[in-house]
Amino acid sequence: MERCKTCKFWEPPKSQSYGEVPGVGRCQKVVQFWDSAEWDEDGDGRKLRPEFADALAFVQDGSDYRADLYTKPEFGCVQHASTSLT
Fold it and tell me: Is residue 19 domain-resident?
């Protein structure tokens, strides 16, 4: 399985960033669940918005304000997209 360290969607840790844990980066492929859904026509429930129909993973926190998926470089993912152009 491919790893985050070679994925174009993985944002490596920035040195000297406040609150950062060394060696832990952020996945930019996984989307905020609340932002990827909308109310259905009846207003009774929510459904995925068409542009997120192919998304495989989501993140959500209790407030729906912001959530990120943090991983180490060795984490494996089926949504990997190589940083190389080969």
Answer: no
CB within 8 A of 57, min separation 6: which ones?
29, 30, 69, 79
Name the amino acid, one letter, at 49: R
Here the tokens at position 14 are: 């920035």
pLDDT digit string (tens) for 9-68? 999 988 777 778 888 999 999 999 999 999 998 888 999 999 999 999 999 988 888 899
Domain count, the chain: 1
Burial class (CB in 10 A: 0-12, 13-18, 19+), 10: buried
Domain membership flag for residue 21 = no
End-to-end Cα, the chain, rounded Å: 17
Listed in order, strand segments (DSSP E) in 3-83 are 10-11, 25-27, 31-32, 37-39, 46-48, 58-59, 69-71
**Residue 86, pLDDT score:** 46
